[in-house]
Amino acid sequence: MSHTDLHDLSVAQLAAKLAAREVSSVEVTQHFLGRIRQHDSLGAFLATDAEISLAQARAADARLAAGERTPLLGVPLAHKDIFVTRDFPTTAGSKMLENYRSPFDATVVARLGVSSGAGMVSLGKLNCDEFAMGSGNDNSAWKPVQNPWDTTRVPGGSSGGSAAAVAARLVPAATGTDTGGSIRQPAALTGITGIKPTYGRCSRYGMVAFASSLDQAGPMARSALDCALLLSSMAGPDPDRDSTSLDLPALDYATDLIAASAATTGTTPLKGLKIGLPTQFFGAGCSADVLKTVRGALAEFEKLGATLVDVSLPLTELSIPVYYVIAPAEASSNLSRFDGVRYGHRAAAYTDLTDMYKKSRSEGFGDEVTRRIMIGTYVLSHGYYDAYYLKAQKIRRLIAEDFQKAFAQCDIIAGPVSPTVAWKIGEKSDDPVANYLADIYTLSSSLAGLPGMSVPAGFGEGGMPVGLQLIGNYFKEAQLLGTAHQFQLATDWHLRRPTGI
Amino acid sequence: MSQTPPPVNSFAQMQAGRPTGPLVQGYEVIIGFETHTQLTTQSKIFSRASTAFGAEPNTQASAVDFALPGALPVMNKGAVQRAIEFGLAVNAHIAESSVFARKNYFYPDLPKGYQISQFEIPVVQGGTVEFFLGDEKKAVRLVRAHLEEDAGKSLHEDFIGMSGIDLNRAGTPLLEIVTEPDMRSSAEAVAYAKELHKIVTWIGICDGNMQEGSFRCDANVSVRKPGAELGTRREIKNLNSFKFMQQAIDYEVRWQIEQLEDGHAIQQATVLFDPDTGETRSMRTKEDAADYRYFPDPDLPPLVISREWVEKTRAEMSELPRVMAQRFVSDYSLPEYDAGQLTQSKAVAAYFEAVAAASQQPKLASNWVMGELSRRLNTEDKGIELSAVSARQLGQLISRIADGTISNNAARQVFDALWTGEGSDVDAIIEAKGLKQMSDTGELEKIIDDVLAANAKNVDEVRAGNAKAFNALVGQTMKATKGKANPAQVNELLKKKLG
Which of A28, A275, B139, B452 has the fewest Cβ atoms within 10 Å of its own Cβ atom? Predict the structure, then answer.
């Protein structure tokens, strides 16, 4: 196989070639660095450094030469710019952190990396919405990201750079973070696979915090199998660094998944699986092309033996105001550390301390971030706290309870990820509320802390990809990945590629 | 006919039955305390950086303390352990589940832009601090004690036109102990603070170093006419010596009374005490008060403390000063005053118990520890752990007093010899200095007879009922024996011979 085909290989295939020493990590890395340079106009990357990536690749090759055979060794990836990294700058998509360099690696980065982890080579940092706030990647302070399926459209957000890079095959896989849908929605809009695990499954240490009670890291790749490979290394307890990380060991998701599919024979491997369809996810709010595609995918699941049952998540609509109270409240506090005192942007001239704060923060933060800080500050203020923040927390608990009632009737919940396919760049920039409303199908499971994923399900308007959302109960990542894997064995939506790239 | 019930936990209700303190110009003084005690953990409350005092600026601050992007707090179990110990020491309720909250405000020495503290549900709830004010037993009720992190320091002196920030102190664990407004005078307030200081150092959760800021008191002070509504309070910040504490409160009370007498209302304010002028001055008033936008910290799950943890701590805790003092009263038949003095510190109490055990004379042991020994230590500004006389030596000395070998006066000479290092064995010193009391009755009787013969006039006066003359004879006898006679024995023999 020639090197020009390397970018078409999955993580699992690349790993196998590396393990067989058919290709070196340096060769693979050089190949992908070339692709990244070639498709720079997509805007997916914020930072690359060939020397650093190649040094990591040489380290991986040394481990391979020494006989080590671990599932991800030598395979390249790139990290969303929300993860702090020693080797590359970390800006979180914000002017506030221009040229910021972290003295430590995020736990997820370290666990995947060459020096002490799974041995993956980092190709750089991926563009995202500023501080992960947005759903079109148009809130990046640096540049927009284009959707490889139609470069006039957004890739989704906030992990838009990750999604575009994977879809354009500039990287075999990427990390993302999901607070209210930021892995699932861009995965859906670019036709790739992404999973947001149960809250606490992956350590948040080293993720620039947006909303601490919601933020969760996850892998983005072209298939469920590749996601499973990455998640096995990313997940796991981190009690010395993140108090909210779950005290549950990471599972070997990929091995489990392969073993499970090998054990099932016949044409109905999903027999016995009950898939719940919330009536609220299939209403008038969802565009017809998306609904049709999602229903088509669900029919495929039926063919594989699964049963579809109707369930109800009555507070789905309320998840929008609840999320847009809680997330900004936490963000307003989390972003207070960006004050121009110790690091980050500081205004060039100011009259006194208050003026320094005001100017540094006004200059450093973009509009959407400023908007959310203001909303968050308001809802936490004396006299408003009970009516907004406290009320939102109460409804949040009710939303979580509704999911448990639904899971009494089914194993997995399914529906659309996004009510529409990717929209044109700039189309919704002036209408924050329209953006907020489009998060409706991903917010409720985020608020409940449940794992969810997006699986390529076909194409809608303009030939743009549509994602199917699968939501599992707590800690059921393996079941989600296994279900998606069976679907991907039977379909080829996840193998479709955008033309011209 | 309906009647409005009095509000629950109203100030009046809380204070019902509590005595009025000494009035100042007809005003009752009301004081509540908030004390920040720095806990003795090796590392910070939410990071692994060291808490040691005095290092080069910013060398003891980790990514968490600098609030670098992506850094997260992780609870230091040692800080929780110390909070539990404090709660048990003051008979408080230890919350099964308490909550950390963020107190949001901007200041350069507050790196995250918020302080992690406990707001609605603190770890220690209620409790009482008991102590003596003179002979009067006092009990100050605690509202709560909560865990929180300290801020860094702004350094304004060393930089022209700029300020420096030192984050070594940022994240140092604090237990903030809050009282009800139960104190009625500056003297009572200081006695409370001293007792609290004793408790936290006794149980070892705080080193008590007030100069280094390990024990910082804020006093909420108000005045009112007896029976009137509670007056508006002003908070005196950062009282870091007992002396300034009393001065500051006294000044503040006089200032408030003067304002009221002049017809001015008191504005709620935070004030600082200036030891140079002896005055308090306002830092900020209520109008400037920030909205801290408290909310539960999503980075930290609720602090859950199991009953087992509490009971294990209770079982492992050393005897508390209050309990030990009671034991001294019942086991050693000491007066309450002695018991209180001897339990000022663990070291003093341990020293006393060793002396009492060695001598089997608890009251004499108490007298010597509180008297001669403490005088010497004070003169040389030493703690009891540096005493030149060991407990064993003092015990031996007291035994020699008790068995009549030496007089009290002679014992002081022996003590002096021990203290200066002139000798180390009590009996050897007694021998070398010839301090043994005369135990031979025959010899003493002979000397008395000589004294009586030489002082016929005094003898006549004694017989006429002059007590002074009797004392003179005692004195003459003691002189004649060079102080070696036992004065009690002299008394007895003289009475016999003259009676």
Answer: B139
For residues A135 and A439, what is the distance between their CA atoms, to the nearest angstrom? 8
**Predicted confidence pLDDT, tens digits, chain B (499 residues):** 344 444 445 555 555 556 667 888 999 999 999 999 999 999 999 999 999 888 999 999 999 999 999 999 999 999 999 999 999 999 999 999 999 999 999 999 999 999 999 999 999 999 999 998 888 889 999 999 999 999 999 888 777 778 899 999 999 999 999 999 999 999 999 999 999 999 999 999 999 999 999 999 999 999 999 888 889 999 999 898 999 999 999 999 999 999 999 999 999 999 999 988 989 988 887 666 789 999 999 999 999 999 999 999 999 999 999 899 999 999 999 998 899 889 988 999 999 999 999 999 999 999 999 999 999 999 998 889 999 999 999 999 999 999 888 888 889 999 999 999 999 999 999 999 888 877 677 788 888 888 888 888 888 888 888 888 888 888 888 888 877 788 888 888 888 888 7
How many C-beta neighbours within 10 Å does residue B44 have? 26
What is the complex's ipTM, to 2 decimals? 0.96
Chain A residues lying within 8 Å of B112, measured CB to CB: 336-337
Partnered with residue A456 across adjacent β-strands are A467
Single out the residue of A210, A252, A207 nearest to residue A90, CA to CA: A207
- Partnered with residue A28 across adjacent β-strands are none
Which of A243, A330, A381 has the CB atom closest to B75's CB atom? A243
Looking at the domain covering A3-256, what would its CATH class be? alpha beta
**In three state form, how does the secondary structure of A188-238 look?**
HHHCCEEEECCCCCECCCCECCCCCCCCEEEEEECCHHHHHHHHHHHECCC
Give the one of B73, B75, B114 whose C-beta lies nearest to A333's C-beta.
B114
CB contact under 8 A, B102 and A206: no
Contact B70 A84 (CB under 8 A): yes
Are A336 and B113 in contact (CB < 8 Å)?
yes
**Boundaries of every domain in chain A:** 3-256
Among the listed residues A17, A80, A359, A476, the single catalytic one is A80
A158 is catalytic: yes
Tell me if the pTM is above 0.95: no
Where do the domains of chain B lie, and which CATH numbers do they carry?
Answer: 20-308 (no CATH), 319-433 (no CATH), 441-498 (1.10.10.410)
Active-site annotation holds for A53: no
Partner A contacted by B63 (CB < 8 A) = yes
Contacts of A401 (CB under 8 A, 6+ apart): none
Residues of A in contact with B72 (CB under 8 A): 204-205, 209, 241-244
Distance CA A321, CA A315 (A): 11
By the 10 Å C-beta count (0-12 exposed, 13-18 middle, 19+ buried), A136 is classed as buried
Per the annotation, the verdict on A362 as an active-site residue is no
Which residue, among A106, A76, A101, A87, has the nearest Cα to A15 in the 3D structure? A76
Nearest CA in chain B to A92: B69
Measure B1 CA to nearest chain A CA, in Å. Answer: 35
Q: Which residues pair with A77 in a beta bridge?
A: A122
Partner-chain contact A336 B295, CB within 8 Å: no
